[in-house]
Sequence to fold (434 residues):
Amino acid sequence: MDKDYLIRLIHEYNPQIRGATVAVPTTYRDLFSEIELWMIKKQAIAIVGLRRTGKTTLMRQLMVGQEGTPVFFSFDEEETQKKEVLVFVLDYAITTLHATSLFLDEIQYVEDWEGTVKRYYDQTGLKFVVSGSESLEISRAKASLAGRLVAFQLHPLSFREYLRLKGADIKREPAEMHDYSSMEQLYRQCITRKEYFEQEFIEFLYRGAFPELVLEEDESVIRRYIHDLVVKKIIYRDIPAIFEIRRPDLLYELFRYACGTSSQLFDVQNISRHFGVHAGTIANYLWYLRSAFLVNVAESYSASPAKRVRRNKKLYVTSPAIACAVLGYGRQQLTSQVLGQYVESLFAGRYFWRDRYKHEVDVIKEHEGSLVPVEVKYQNQINQSDSKNLLFFMEEYDVRTGIIITKDLMEQITRDGREILYIPAWLAAMAEPS
Fold:
Protein backbone atom coordinates (compact mmCIF):
# COMPACT_ATOMS: atom_id res chain seq x y z
CA MET A 1 0.00 0.00 0.00
CA ASP A 2 1.55 3.32 -1.15
CA LYS A 3 0.70 5.80 1.60
CA ASP A 4 1.80 8.82 -0.46
CA TYR A 5 -0.56 7.74 -3.24
CA LEU A 6 -3.44 7.39 -0.78
CA ILE A 7 -2.75 10.80 0.74
CA ARG A 8 -2.73 12.33 -2.73
CA LEU A 9 -6.04 10.59 -3.50
CA ILE A 10 -7.59 11.89 -0.27
CA HIS A 11 -6.60 15.45 -1.16
CA GLU A 12 -7.81 15.09 -4.76
CA TYR A 13 -11.18 13.89 -3.49
CA ASN A 14 -11.37 16.80 -1.04
CA PRO A 15 -10.38 20.12 -2.66
CA GLN A 16 -12.19 21.90 0.18
CA ILE A 17 -9.22 20.96 2.39
CA ARG A 18 -7.06 23.47 0.50
CA GLY A 19 -9.81 26.08 0.46
CA ALA A 20 -11.12 25.34 -3.04
CA THR A 21 -14.84 25.39 -3.74
CA VAL A 22 -16.44 22.04 -4.50
CA ALA A 23 -18.95 22.51 -7.32
CA VAL A 24 -22.10 20.44 -6.81
CA PRO A 25 -25.35 20.41 -8.79
CA THR A 26 -28.06 22.69 -7.45
CA THR A 27 -30.86 20.37 -8.56
CA TYR A 28 -31.60 17.75 -5.91
CA ARG A 29 -33.06 14.27 -5.96
CA ASP A 30 -36.23 13.72 -3.90
CA LEU A 31 -34.25 11.55 -1.49
CA PHE A 32 -31.99 14.45 -0.48
CA SER A 33 -34.51 16.09 1.86
CA GLU A 34 -35.32 12.75 3.47
CA ILE A 35 -31.67 11.97 4.22
CA GLU A 36 -30.91 15.53 5.28
CA LEU A 37 -33.18 15.08 8.30
CA TRP A 38 -30.85 12.30 9.50
CA MET A 39 -27.63 14.25 9.07
CA ILE A 40 -28.03 15.82 12.53
CA LYS A 41 -28.63 12.44 14.15
CA LYS A 42 -25.91 10.14 15.42
CA GLN A 43 -26.72 7.11 13.26
CA ALA A 44 -24.55 6.26 10.27
CA ILE A 45 -26.31 6.59 6.91
CA ALA A 46 -26.10 4.13 4.02
CA ILE A 47 -27.17 5.08 0.49
CA VAL A 48 -27.68 2.13 -1.85
CA GLY A 49 -28.84 1.90 -5.43
CA LEU A 50 -28.10 1.11 -9.04
CA ARG A 51 -24.88 2.31 -10.64
CA ARG A 52 -24.88 5.82 -12.17
CA THR A 53 -28.07 6.96 -10.45
CA GLY A 54 -26.30 9.72 -8.54
CA LYS A 55 -25.22 8.32 -5.17
CA THR A 56 -21.85 10.10 -5.29
CA THR A 57 -23.46 13.40 -6.28
CA LEU A 58 -25.97 13.02 -3.46
CA MET A 59 -23.15 12.46 -0.97
CA ARG A 60 -21.32 15.56 -2.25
CA GLN A 61 -24.50 17.61 -1.86
CA LEU A 62 -24.94 16.35 1.69
CA MET A 63 -21.37 17.45 2.51
CA VAL A 64 -22.20 21.06 1.67
CA GLY A 65 -23.15 22.96 4.79
CA GLN A 66 -21.80 20.34 7.18
CA GLU A 67 -20.18 21.86 10.24
CA GLY A 68 -16.51 21.15 10.80
CA THR A 69 -14.54 19.16 8.22
CA PRO A 70 -16.35 16.58 6.08
CA VAL A 71 -14.01 14.17 4.26
CA PHE A 72 -14.88 12.09 1.18
CA PHE A 73 -13.20 8.95 -0.20
CA SER A 74 -14.19 6.52 -2.95
CA PHE A 75 -13.30 2.82 -3.03
CA ASP A 76 -14.24 2.41 -6.68
CA GLU A 77 -10.62 1.87 -7.73
CA GLU A 78 -9.47 -1.73 -7.38
CA GLU A 79 -6.20 -0.90 -5.61
CA THR A 80 -8.08 0.89 -2.80
CA GLN A 81 -10.47 -1.98 -2.04
CA LYS A 82 -8.56 -3.30 0.97
CA LYS A 83 -9.29 -3.15 4.66
CA GLU A 84 -5.91 -1.60 5.45
CA VAL A 85 -6.69 1.21 2.97
CA LEU A 86 -9.96 1.93 4.76
CA VAL A 87 -8.19 2.02 8.13
CA PHE A 88 -5.47 4.34 6.76
CA VAL A 89 -8.05 6.70 5.24
CA LEU A 90 -10.00 6.86 8.49
CA ASP A 91 -6.91 7.44 10.62
CA TYR A 92 -5.54 10.13 8.29
CA ALA A 93 -8.91 11.89 8.05
CA ILE A 94 -9.32 11.92 11.83
CA THR A 95 -5.79 12.65 13.07
CA THR A 96 -4.43 14.84 10.26
CA LEU A 97 -7.50 16.49 8.73
CA HIS A 98 -9.55 16.54 11.97
CA ALA A 99 -12.60 15.22 10.13
CA THR A 100 -15.99 15.62 11.76
CA SER A 101 -17.88 13.53 9.23
CA LEU A 102 -16.79 10.84 6.77
CA PHE A 103 -18.35 10.08 3.40
CA LEU A 104 -17.24 6.67 2.08
CA ASP A 105 -18.31 5.86 -1.48
CA GLU A 106 -18.67 2.32 -2.93
CA ILE A 107 -17.77 0.86 0.46
CA GLN A 108 -19.11 -2.61 -0.41
CA TYR A 109 -15.85 -3.56 -2.13
CA VAL A 110 -13.89 -3.50 1.16
CA GLU A 111 -13.92 -6.74 3.12
CA ASP A 112 -15.36 -6.39 6.66
CA TRP A 113 -15.93 -2.68 6.15
CA GLU A 114 -18.86 -2.82 8.54
CA GLY A 115 -16.64 -4.10 11.36
CA THR A 116 -14.15 -1.29 10.82
CA VAL A 117 -16.84 1.38 10.63
CA LYS A 118 -18.49 -0.02 13.76
CA ARG A 119 -15.24 0.27 15.72
CA TYR A 120 -14.57 3.87 14.63
CA TYR A 121 -18.23 4.81 15.08
CA ASP A 122 -18.21 3.59 18.67
CA GLN A 123 -14.81 5.06 19.56
CA THR A 124 -14.98 8.48 17.87
CA GLY A 125 -18.65 9.41 17.59
CA LEU A 126 -18.04 10.68 14.03
CA LYS A 127 -20.85 10.94 11.50
CA PHE A 128 -20.54 8.27 8.79
CA VAL A 129 -22.27 8.33 5.41
CA VAL A 130 -21.54 5.32 3.19
CA SER A 131 -22.78 4.28 -0.24
CA GLY A 132 -22.91 1.02 -2.14
CA SER A 133 -24.28 -0.58 -5.28
CA GLU A 134 -25.12 -3.90 -3.66
CA SER A 135 -28.15 -4.26 -1.40
CA LEU A 136 -27.19 -7.60 0.15
CA GLU A 137 -23.92 -6.26 1.49
CA ILE A 138 -25.70 -3.32 3.10
CA SER A 139 -28.31 -5.70 4.54
CA ARG A 140 -25.55 -7.71 6.18
CA ALA A 141 -24.01 -4.50 7.47
CA LYS A 142 -27.30 -3.44 9.05
CA ALA A 143 -27.25 -6.64 11.09
CA SER A 144 -23.67 -6.01 12.19
CA LEU A 145 -24.32 -2.32 12.85
CA ALA A 146 -27.66 -2.85 14.58
CA GLY A 147 -28.99 0.43 15.90
CA ARG A 148 -26.11 2.35 14.32
CA LEU A 149 -27.06 2.40 10.63
CA VAL A 150 -30.11 3.63 8.70
CA ALA A 151 -30.28 2.77 4.99
CA PHE A 152 -31.88 4.63 2.08
CA GLN A 153 -32.31 3.43 -1.51
CA LEU A 154 -31.68 5.86 -4.35
CA HIS A 155 -33.86 4.68 -7.22
CA PRO A 156 -33.41 5.54 -10.89
CA LEU A 157 -34.80 8.95 -11.76
CA SER A 158 -38.54 9.38 -11.45
CA PHE A 159 -40.39 11.30 -14.16
CA ARG A 160 -40.75 14.22 -11.72
CA GLU A 161 -36.98 14.30 -11.17
CA TYR A 162 -36.30 13.90 -14.90
CA LEU A 163 -38.46 16.96 -15.64
CA ARG A 164 -36.75 18.89 -12.86
CA LEU A 165 -33.32 18.18 -14.35
CA LYS A 166 -34.60 19.39 -17.72
CA GLY A 167 -35.81 22.58 -16.10
CA ALA A 168 -39.41 21.68 -16.93
CA ASP A 169 -40.75 20.91 -13.48
CA ILE A 170 -44.02 22.63 -12.55
CA LYS A 171 -45.04 24.34 -9.34
CA ARG A 172 -47.72 22.21 -7.76
CA GLU A 173 -49.27 20.81 -4.63
CA PRO A 174 -48.64 17.09 -3.93
CA ALA A 175 -50.83 14.88 -6.14
CA GLU A 176 -51.58 11.22 -5.43
CA MET A 177 -52.94 8.79 -8.00
CA HIS A 178 -55.82 7.55 -5.87
CA ASP A 179 -56.95 11.13 -5.17
CA TYR A 180 -58.68 12.18 -8.39
CA SER A 181 -59.23 15.79 -7.34
CA SER A 182 -55.49 16.34 -6.82
CA MET A 183 -54.68 14.60 -10.11
CA GLU A 184 -57.31 16.68 -11.92
CA GLN A 185 -55.77 19.85 -10.51
CA LEU A 186 -52.33 18.74 -11.72
CA TYR A 187 -53.83 17.89 -15.13
CA ARG A 188 -55.25 21.42 -15.46
CA GLN A 189 -51.82 22.89 -14.70
CA CYS A 190 -50.26 20.76 -17.44
CA ILE A 191 -53.00 20.90 -20.09
CA THR A 192 -51.44 23.72 -22.14
CA ARG A 193 -48.22 21.65 -22.42
CA LYS A 194 -49.87 18.25 -22.68
CA GLU A 195 -48.12 17.27 -25.94
CA TYR A 196 -44.76 18.26 -24.46
CA PHE A 197 -45.26 16.06 -21.39
CA GLU A 198 -46.49 13.15 -23.51
CA GLN A 199 -43.34 13.30 -25.66
CA GLU A 200 -41.05 13.77 -22.67
CA PHE A 201 -42.63 10.73 -21.03
CA ILE A 202 -41.59 8.58 -23.99
CA GLU A 203 -38.10 10.10 -23.85
CA PHE A 204 -38.03 9.34 -20.14
CA LEU A 205 -38.86 5.68 -20.79
CA TYR A 206 -36.05 5.54 -23.33
CA ARG A 207 -33.24 7.26 -21.43
CA GLY A 208 -34.58 8.77 -18.23
CA ALA A 209 -33.15 6.49 -15.54
CA PHE A 210 -29.79 8.21 -15.28
CA PRO A 211 -29.06 11.89 -14.54
CA GLU A 212 -26.15 12.11 -16.99
CA LEU A 213 -28.39 11.09 -19.91
CA VAL A 214 -31.23 13.55 -19.35
CA LEU A 215 -29.90 15.98 -21.97
CA GLU A 216 -28.27 13.39 -24.24
CA GLU A 217 -29.84 13.08 -27.70
CA ASP A 218 -27.53 10.60 -29.47
CA GLU A 219 -29.12 7.13 -29.37
CA SER A 220 -25.79 5.31 -29.73
CA VAL A 221 -24.35 7.22 -26.76
CA ILE A 222 -27.44 6.47 -24.66
CA ARG A 223 -27.35 2.74 -25.41
CA ARG A 224 -23.60 2.40 -24.92
CA TYR A 225 -23.63 4.38 -21.65
CA ILE A 226 -26.34 2.15 -20.15
CA HIS A 227 -25.06 -1.10 -21.62
CA ASP A 228 -21.33 -0.63 -20.92
CA LEU A 229 -21.12 1.66 -17.89
CA VAL A 230 -24.08 0.24 -16.00
CA VAL A 231 -25.13 -3.26 -17.05
CA LYS A 232 -21.78 -4.79 -18.06
CA LYS A 233 -19.95 -3.29 -15.07
CA ILE A 234 -22.54 -4.70 -12.69
CA ILE A 235 -22.64 -8.15 -14.28
CA TYR A 236 -18.96 -8.63 -15.09
CA ARG A 237 -17.42 -6.69 -12.21
CA ASP A 238 -19.67 -5.78 -9.28
CA ILE A 239 -21.56 -9.04 -8.82
CA PRO A 240 -18.49 -11.32 -9.30
CA ALA A 241 -16.59 -9.17 -6.77
CA ILE A 242 -19.10 -10.15 -4.08
CA PHE A 243 -20.54 -13.50 -5.18
CA GLU A 244 -18.93 -16.60 -6.65
CA ILE A 245 -20.05 -16.41 -10.29
CA ARG A 246 -18.89 -19.18 -12.60
CA ARG A 247 -20.93 -18.05 -15.60
CA PRO A 248 -21.10 -14.27 -15.98
CA ASP A 249 -22.09 -14.90 -19.61
CA LEU A 250 -25.15 -16.80 -18.37
CA LEU A 251 -25.91 -14.03 -15.88
CA TYR A 252 -25.86 -11.52 -18.75
CA GLU A 253 -28.13 -13.67 -20.94
CA LEU A 254 -30.52 -14.17 -18.03
CA PHE A 255 -30.72 -10.40 -17.64
CA ARG A 256 -31.38 -9.99 -21.38
CA TYR A 257 -34.17 -12.53 -20.95
CA ALA A 258 -35.59 -10.45 -18.08
CA CYS A 259 -35.47 -7.31 -20.24
CA GLY A 260 -37.41 -9.02 -23.02
CA THR A 261 -40.02 -10.59 -20.73
CA SER A 262 -40.38 -7.75 -18.23
CA SER A 263 -43.84 -7.63 -16.57
CA GLN A 264 -44.57 -11.27 -17.42
CA LEU A 265 -45.09 -14.23 -15.09
CA PHE A 266 -42.01 -16.36 -14.63
CA ASP A 267 -41.16 -19.80 -13.30
CA VAL A 268 -37.63 -20.76 -12.30
CA GLN A 269 -38.05 -24.31 -13.61
CA ASN A 270 -39.14 -23.07 -17.03
CA ILE A 271 -36.27 -20.59 -17.22
CA SER A 272 -33.79 -23.32 -16.22
CA ARG A 273 -35.04 -25.50 -19.06
CA HIS A 274 -34.80 -22.55 -21.45
CA PHE A 275 -31.11 -22.06 -20.60
CA GLY A 276 -30.32 -25.73 -19.99
CA VAL A 277 -28.94 -25.19 -16.48
CA HIS A 278 -29.93 -26.24 -12.97
CA ALA A 279 -32.89 -24.43 -11.43
CA GLY A 280 -30.80 -23.60 -8.35
CA THR A 281 -28.35 -21.69 -10.53
CA ILE A 282 -31.17 -19.64 -12.07
CA ALA A 283 -32.64 -18.91 -8.63
CA ASN A 284 -29.25 -17.74 -7.34
CA TYR A 285 -28.53 -15.62 -10.41
CA LEU A 286 -31.93 -13.93 -10.20
CA TRP A 287 -31.17 -13.12 -6.58
CA TYR A 288 -27.85 -11.55 -7.61
CA LEU A 289 -29.63 -9.41 -10.22
CA ARG A 290 -32.15 -8.30 -7.60
CA SER A 291 -29.41 -7.50 -5.11
CA ALA A 292 -27.68 -5.35 -7.73
CA PHE A 293 -30.95 -3.45 -8.43
CA LEU A 294 -31.24 -4.64 -12.04
CA VAL A 295 -34.53 -6.53 -11.63
CA ASN A 296 -37.52 -6.53 -9.29
CA VAL A 297 -39.92 -9.35 -8.46
CA ALA A 298 -43.60 -8.90 -7.55
CA GLU A 299 -45.76 -11.45 -5.75
CA SER A 300 -49.40 -12.25 -6.47
CA TYR A 301 -51.40 -10.50 -3.77
CA SER A 302 -53.15 -12.57 -1.13
CA ALA A 303 -54.09 -11.90 2.47
CA SER A 304 -52.16 -15.10 3.23
CA PRO A 305 -48.33 -14.76 3.08
CA ALA A 306 -48.09 -18.54 2.60
CA LYS A 307 -50.21 -18.34 -0.56
CA ARG A 308 -48.13 -15.47 -1.91
CA VAL A 309 -44.97 -17.56 -1.63
CA ARG A 310 -46.49 -20.51 -3.52
CA ARG A 311 -47.93 -18.55 -6.44
CA ASN A 312 -46.11 -17.56 -9.63
CA LYS A 313 -44.36 -14.21 -9.55
CA LYS A 314 -43.67 -11.45 -12.05
CA LEU A 315 -40.24 -10.33 -13.13
CA TYR A 316 -39.57 -6.68 -13.97
CA VAL A 317 -36.53 -4.84 -15.27
CA THR A 318 -35.74 -1.96 -12.92
CA SER A 319 -35.99 0.70 -15.60
CA PRO A 320 -37.44 0.68 -19.13
CA ALA A 321 -34.38 2.63 -20.28
CA ILE A 322 -32.13 -0.28 -19.31
CA ALA A 323 -34.24 -2.77 -21.26
CA CYS A 324 -34.20 -0.52 -24.34
CA ALA A 325 -30.40 -0.27 -24.21
CA VAL A 326 -29.76 -3.98 -23.61
CA LEU A 327 -32.20 -5.07 -26.33
CA GLY A 328 -30.87 -2.44 -28.73
CA TYR A 329 -34.13 -0.59 -29.24
CA GLY A 330 -34.06 2.72 -31.07
CA ARG A 331 -36.75 5.34 -30.56
CA GLN A 332 -38.51 4.23 -33.74
CA GLN A 333 -38.97 0.74 -32.30
CA LEU A 334 -40.92 1.99 -29.28
CA THR A 335 -44.33 0.90 -30.52
CA SER A 336 -47.43 1.02 -28.31
CA GLN A 337 -47.04 -2.69 -27.55
CA VAL A 338 -43.43 -2.32 -26.46
CA LEU A 339 -44.19 0.82 -24.49
CA GLY A 340 -47.16 -0.82 -22.76
CA GLN A 341 -44.91 -3.56 -21.42
CA TYR A 342 -42.45 -1.07 -19.97
CA VAL A 343 -45.04 1.37 -18.68
CA GLU A 344 -46.25 -1.50 -16.50
CA SER A 345 -42.66 -2.07 -15.35
CA LEU A 346 -42.43 1.59 -14.43
CA PHE A 347 -45.44 1.43 -12.10
CA ALA A 348 -44.80 -2.06 -10.72
CA GLY A 349 -44.63 -2.56 -6.96
CA ARG A 350 -44.55 -5.39 -4.46
CA TYR A 351 -47.76 -7.01 -5.67
CA PHE A 352 -49.95 -7.81 -8.64
CA TRP A 353 -53.05 -10.00 -8.52
CA ARG A 354 -54.09 -13.13 -10.35
CA ASP A 355 -56.84 -15.52 -9.28
CA ARG A 356 -57.46 -19.17 -10.18
CA TYR A 357 -59.66 -18.05 -13.10
CA LYS A 358 -56.73 -16.02 -14.49
CA HIS A 359 -58.29 -12.65 -13.78
CA GLU A 360 -55.28 -10.39 -13.40
CA VAL A 361 -54.58 -6.85 -12.19
CA ASP A 362 -51.15 -5.42 -12.97
CA VAL A 363 -50.32 -3.64 -9.70
CA ILE A 364 -51.74 -3.76 -6.17
CA LYS A 365 -50.63 -0.88 -3.98
CA GLU A 366 -51.09 -0.62 -0.23
CA HIS A 367 -51.98 2.83 1.06
CA GLU A 368 -52.78 3.67 4.68
CA GLY A 369 -54.24 0.24 5.42
CA SER A 370 -56.26 -0.04 2.21
CA LEU A 371 -55.63 -1.53 -1.24
CA VAL A 372 -55.43 0.39 -4.52
CA PRO A 373 -55.57 -1.80 -7.66
CA VAL A 374 -53.91 -0.37 -10.79
CA GLU A 375 -54.33 -1.63 -14.37
CA VAL A 376 -52.05 -0.42 -17.17
CA LYS A 377 -53.78 0.02 -20.54
CA TYR A 378 -51.34 2.06 -22.58
CA GLN A 379 -53.36 2.00 -25.80
CA ASN A 380 -55.28 4.32 -28.09
CA GLN A 381 -58.76 3.03 -27.27
CA ILE A 382 -60.14 2.14 -23.84
CA ASN A 383 -63.17 -0.14 -23.75
CA GLN A 384 -65.52 -1.07 -20.95
CA SER A 385 -64.05 -4.59 -20.95
CA ASP A 386 -60.66 -3.13 -19.96
CA SER A 387 -61.98 -2.57 -16.44
CA LYS A 388 -63.35 -6.10 -16.03
CA ASN A 389 -60.47 -7.59 -14.04
CA LEU A 390 -60.15 -4.46 -11.97
CA LEU A 391 -63.79 -4.79 -10.93
CA PHE A 392 -63.32 -8.48 -10.09
CA PHE A 393 -60.55 -7.53 -7.65
CA MET A 394 -62.47 -4.57 -6.22
CA GLU A 395 -65.50 -6.76 -5.52
CA GLU A 396 -63.50 -9.59 -3.97
CA TYR A 397 -61.56 -7.28 -1.62
CA ASP A 398 -64.34 -4.69 -1.18
CA VAL A 399 -62.26 -1.87 -2.62
CA ARG A 400 -64.01 1.33 -3.60
CA THR A 401 -61.43 2.97 -5.90
CA GLY A 402 -59.38 1.49 -8.73
CA ILE A 403 -57.07 3.09 -11.28
CA ILE A 404 -56.53 2.46 -14.99
CA ILE A 405 -53.37 4.04 -16.38
CA THR A 406 -54.08 5.03 -19.98
CA LYS A 407 -52.24 6.55 -22.91
CA ASP A 408 -54.44 9.64 -23.10
CA LEU A 409 -57.78 9.29 -21.32
CA MET A 410 -58.47 11.36 -18.19
CA GLU A 411 -61.82 10.52 -16.63
CA GLN A 412 -63.60 9.51 -13.43
CA ILE A 413 -66.54 7.11 -13.66
CA THR A 414 -68.66 4.98 -11.35
CA ARG A 415 -69.35 1.41 -12.39
CA ASP A 416 -71.25 -1.15 -10.33
CA GLY A 417 -71.08 1.25 -7.39
CA ARG A 418 -67.29 1.51 -7.54
CA GLU A 419 -65.08 4.39 -8.62
CA ILE A 420 -62.64 3.95 -11.52
CA LEU A 421 -60.06 6.63 -12.25
CA TYR A 422 -58.62 6.82 -15.77
CA ILE A 423 -55.28 8.66 -15.65
CA PRO A 424 -52.79 9.21 -18.52
CA ALA A 425 -49.44 7.51 -17.90
CA TRP A 426 -47.44 10.74 -18.17
CA LEU A 427 -49.64 12.36 -15.53
CA ALA A 428 -49.61 9.30 -13.25
CA ALA A 429 -45.80 9.35 -13.40
CA MET A 430 -45.87 12.87 -11.91
CA ALA A 431 -47.82 11.69 -8.87
CA GLU A 432 -46.20 11.40 -5.47
CA PRO A 433 -44.94 7.87 -4.67
CA SER A 434 -47.35 5.93 -2.45
